[in-house]
Design goal:
The complex is a heteropentamer, with two copies of chain A (about 220 residues), one copy of chain C (about 230 residues) and two copies of chain D (about 200 residues). Chain A has about 220 residues and is mainly α. Chain A has helices at about 1-20, 20-40, 45, 50-75, 80-85, 90-120, 130-150, 160-185, 190-215. Classes of the chains: A mainly alpha (about 220), C mainly alpha (about 230), D alpha/beta (about 200). The interface of B and C includes residues 38, 39 and 42 of B. The complex binds protoporphyrin IX containing FE, adenosine-5'-triphosphate (2 copies) and magnesium ion (2 copies). One magnesium ion binds near residues 42, 43, 71 and 144 of chain E.
Amino acid sequence: MIRRLGLVAGRELLAERRQPDGLVAAVTFIALLVLLESLVVGPVSARQPAVAGALFWIALAFAAILAATRSFDRELEDDALDAIIALPGGRDALFAGKVLALTAVLAIVGAVGGVLSLVLLDLEVALAGHLLLVTALGVLALPTVVVLDVVLALRLRARAALVPILALPVLIPQLVAATQGSASALSGDATGSLGWSALLLAFAFVYAVLGFTIVPAAIE
Amino acid sequence: MIRRLGLVAGRELLAERRQPDGLVAAVTFIALLVLLESLVVGPVSARQPAVAGALFWIALAFAAILAATRSFDRELEDDALDAIIALPGGRDALFAGKVLALTAVLAIVGAVGGVLSLVLLDLEVALAGHLLLVTALGVLALPTVVVLDVVLALRLRARAALVPILALPVLIPQLVAATQGSASALSGDATGSLGWSALLLAFAFVYAVLGFTIVPAAIE
Amino acid sequence: MTTTTFPRALVLRVRPWLGIAAIAAASISTYMSLLWAPPDAMQGDVYRIMYVHVPSAWLAYLAFIVVFLASVGWLWTRQRWFDAVAVASAEIGVLFTALALVAGSIWAKPTWGVWWTWEPRLVTTAVMFVMYVGYLLLRNLSTDFVRRASRAAVLGIVLVVDVPVVHLSVLWMNSLHQLPTVLRASGGPSLDSSMLATLLVSVAAFTLIYAYLLAARVGIELRRHERIGALRDG
Amino acid sequence: MDVGATLRGVTAILDDRVVLREVDLSVGPGLCLLRGPNGAGKTTVLRAIAGLIPLAAGSREIHGDLLALGHRPQLLRGLSAIENLTFLQRFRGVRDAPAVGPALAAWGLGVDLARPVEALSAGQRRRVALARLDTEPCAVTLLDEPFAELDDSAARMLRQAIDRTLEAGRSLLVATHGHPELDLRASAVMRIENGRVVA
Amino acid sequence: MDVGATLRGVTAILDDRVVLREVDLSVGPGLCLLRGPNGAGKTTVLRAIAGLIPLAAGSREIHGDLLALGHRPQLLRGLSAIENLTFLQRFRGVRDAPAVGPALAAWGLGVDLARPVEALSAGQRRRVALARLDTEPCAVTLLDEPFAELDDSAARMLRQAIDRTLEAGRSLLVATHGHPELDLRASAVMRIENGRVVA
Ligand code: HEM
Ligand SMILES: Nc1ncnc2c1ncn2[C@@H]1O[C@H](COP(=O)(O)OP(=O)(O)OP(=O)(O)O)[C@@H](O)[C@H]1O
Ligand SMILES: Nc1ncnc2c1ncn2[C@@H]1O[C@H](COP(=O)(O)OP(=O)(O)OP(=O)(O)O)[C@@H](O)[C@H]1O
Ligand SMILES: [Mg+2]
Ligand SMILES: [Mg+2]
C-alpha cells in the first residue's frame, strides 16, 4: 500500500515537473494575488498582520484547488485515470498519492508565497519558529479536503464551480485558524499561535482519517 | 464577419448554459473570495472603499482568466477548436466571439459579485451611477487582454500558469484604475471616478484594436 | 427493489400518526411559548422567538447527524433506503438551518440592533447552511443513482464535522451570541424553570415535525427508486 | 487545375522534430489515398493542408472551400450533435445547405440527437463527424482514418458517401490503413514514410 | 472455472439512460469476441467488467488479475511511454515482469521512447497501450477495438500477441468491428444489441 502510494505520488510529481501547470500556476497565482493586493490595497492596510495572513491563506486555498483540479484534468485526458482505477488497490493509492503530491506542491507554493509576502509587504516576524509551525500545519490541513472534493466533483458538469463551493466552506475553520495563528505569530503572541496550531493539527488529523477511510468508495 | 462572430459567441454561451463551468465557477470564485476576505480580514478593514474595490476587481480579473481558460479547454477536448480554425474566417471570428462571450459572462459575474460585496460588507454607495459606469467600463476593459493571453498560451505547457503571468501585469493599470474609480464612486468623489472611467475606456479601446488586428495570426 | 419495500411499508404506516402527534405538540408548544411562559426580565416578549430559534437550530443539528448516519449506512450496506433517508434529512436540515438563521436575525435586530454581524456562531451557522446547500447541489449534478449515492454519502460524512464547530464556536472565540445556557458541559441549565419547560416542549414539537417531514420525504424518494426499478424492468 | 489542394516543398517541425521533409503533393478531382505506416506523417500532411500547423518551409494552396475531419470528432462537448453541426454549417453560410437533422438520421443517429455528444459512443461520435460530408459539401475534403470505430453498416454508408462525393466531381484526400477496396476507386495512391512521399 | 470474468444480471444506467439490461456473460479461458453495432453497449460491458462504472443491478466477478484497455490509450500526458508503462507495471508489483523497453521496441517504438506520449501519432499511442499486453500479463484481458489506427504490420503484431495470450491459457475478451480472421481463433462470439446480449 505504502509502495503504491509512493508510486502514485512520484508519478504525479514527475508529471508536475514535466508540465508544471499546477505548481507554477499556484505559485504565480499566490504571488500575483499578494503583489496585486499590496499594490491596490496600499501597503498600509495590506501590512496589518491579519490582512496579510488572511490574504496568504485564501490565496493558498485557491492555489490548492487550482493545482488539484489541474492534476485530475490531466488524468482525465486519454482516460489515464481508468488505467489506475482498474488496478487492484488503485482507488486507495490514487487518493492517498494525490493528497501526498498536493501536500508537496503546496509546501513549495506556501514557502514561495510566504517569503514573497514577507518581502513584498516587508512584515517583521516576531516569532519565526511559530510562524513556520503554523504554516506547516496549515499546509498539512488543506490538501485532504481539496482532493476529496475534487474527487467528488469528478466528471460532473460544472465541476470547476462545484469544487470551490464544496471545499471552501469546509476549509473556513482551517483558514481562520491559520490566519489567526500566523497573525499572532507575526505579532508575537506565542500562546495564541500555539493554540491555533493545535486546532489546525486536529482538523488535519480528522479529515485525513475520514478521507482515507471513505473516499475510495466514491472514485470512478 | 459580424454574423460569424455572433455565431461563435452564441455557441459559447449555449455551451456555458449547458455546462456552466466558467460562469458558475467565476461567480462562486468571486463570491467566496469576497466572503472569505470579509470573514478573515474582519469587516472593519474589508469595508474601506479601497480594500473592497481592490478585492472585487482582483477577484473579477481572476474570474475572467478562469472562465476564458475553461472555455478554451473545452474547445481543445476532441479537437473541437480545429473544426473552427479550419473554416474560412474562423480565426478572427473565434477571437472576437470569445471576447464577446467572455464580456457577457463577466457582466453577469460582475453584477452578482458587485451586489454581493455591497450587501455582505454593507457599503453605502455615494454615487450609484458613477459606480455603475466604472464597473461597466472595467468589465469592458478586461476580456480582450485575457482572451488574447489565453490564445497566446494555447497548447503550450503550463498554460494554466502562463496566462496569469501574461495577463495580470498587463491588467494592472486597468485594475488600479477600476479600483480607484469604484473607490471614489463609493466615497462620493465624482470627478475622480469619471477620470478613472475615461482611463478605463481608453485602455479598453486600445487593446480591442490591437487584439482584433494581430491575434488571429497567432491562433493555431 | 426488495430493499425498498420493507422501509416503505414502515414509512407508510407511521406517517399519519406522526402527523397527528406533530400537530398536537405544535399547538401545545405554541400556546405555552406565546401565552403560558412569562416575559423575559430584560427583553420582555421579544425573547419568545427563542422558542422557534433554538429548537430549529438544534433540529438542524439532528437532521445533519441523521444524514451522517444514513451515509455510513449506505457505504456499509449499499441499501437504497439509506440514501433516501440521507437526502430527506439533508433537505429538512437545510430548511431548519434557514429557519434558525431567519429567526435569529429577527431576534438580533431588537436585541443587538443589527440583522447580521460577523460573529462566530452566526458565521459558522451560515457556513453550515452553505455546506449542505452544496451537498444538495452535488446530488442534483450527479446523474446516475449509485454514483450520486456514494459521492453524497462521502460528503455527508465529511460535513458533519462542522456541527460541533458551530456548537463550540462561541466558546473558541469571544462571542456576542448567547453562550450555551441549556446544553452545557458543567452544571444544569441556567434558565427559568417555566421557560425551560416551554423550550423543551417546543423542542419536542419540532422533533415530531422533523420526524413527520422525514417520513414523508423518504416515502417520495423510495417511490422514485421504484420508478427507476420499473424503468429497468420494462 | 482549379479544384484541389497542393503542397509545395512543405517541411513541418513539431517540437523540434522534423515531421515532414519537402513534401510535394497535389490533390486533383477524384479520390487520392494517403498510405503509410504508423507515425509516417499522414495526419501531419492533412493538418498542413488544412492550415492547422505552421509550415517551417514550403507553401500550401487550396482551390475552393475545404472540409477537414481528423482522428478526433472535433465536436464541442456539452452541445448536441445537431447543435454542433448546425453551428459549423451556419458558419460557412452556404446557401440552401442540406438540413442537419435528416443528414444525421441518414447516418443512423435518429434517436440520440438531443444528448450532448460526450454521451454518445465512440462510433456514434464518428458518425456525427462524418455526417458533415453531407451537411458541408466542399470542393476539397480531407478524411483521417474515417473508418476507425465504424461498424460494418456505417462503413458501407461511408463508402457510399465517398462515392457521392466523387460523382459530384469534388476532390477527396483520405488517409487510412487497410480498406483495399478504396484502391479501386482511387485516382491516385500516395505512400508516405517517415515524413517523405515515397510513391 | 477459476480463470475468467463473469457478469450476472448486470444493468448499467448512465445519465438515467439504461445502457445495459440484465446482461449475463462469462469469459472462460480462450478468446471471447464481443460484436455488435455502434452504440450497442460493447464498451459499457467492458467497463462494467473492469469495475469502471457503477452497476445499477447485478454483480461482477473476476478470477485472477485483470488488464483492461479502452478506446483511448489511457496514458498520462507529459510522461513518456516508458514512464507510463513502468509505473503501471510497478504498481501491480509483479515479480520478474518483462522489461518495458524491449516490449515497446518489439511493438516498433524503438526511437520515440523519450518523448511525452502526446507527441506520438495516434497509431503509435495505440501501440504503446497494446505493449501492456506483454508488460502486464494478466489472467483476464479486455481489449476495446484494439485494431483502430493500427497499420498492417502493427495489426499483425497484435494478432501474434493475441495468440501468445491464448497459448498461455489466459482469458481474452475483445470488442471489435470487422476482423473476421478473429472468429477462427475465438472460442465464443457474443453479440450485443442495444444493451442486451442477443447471441
Ligand atoms: C442570525 C443570527 C443567529 C444565528 C445564526 C444563531 C444561531 C444559533 C445556533 C446555531 C444555535 C444552537 C447553538 C447550540 O446549542 O449549539 C443557537 C442557540 C441559541 N441562540 Fe442563537 N443565533 C442567532 C441569533 C441569536 C440572538 C439574537 C439571540 C439572543 C439574543 C440568540 C440566542 C440563542 C440562545 C439563547 C440559544 C440557546 C443556547 C444554548 O442553550 O446552547 N441567538 N443560535
Ligand atoms: N455517458 C453516457 N451517458 C449516456 N449515455 C451513454 C453514455 N456513454 C454511452 N452512452 C450510450 O450507451 C450506449 C452504449 O455505448 P457504448 O460506448 O457501450 O457502445 P459501443 O457498443 O461501445 O459502441 P461503439 O461500437 O461505437 O464503441 C450508446 O447508445 C451510447 O449512446
Ligand atoms: N506534437 C508532436 N510533437 C512532436 N512530434 C510529433 C507530434 N505529433 C506527431 N509527431 C510525430 O510526427 C510523426 C508523424 O505523426 P503523424 O500523426 O502525422 O503520423 P501518422 O502517419 O498520422 O501516424 P498514424 O498512422 O499513427 O496516425 C510521428 O513520428 C510522431 O511521432
Ligand atoms: Mg494519423
Ligand atoms: Mg465502444
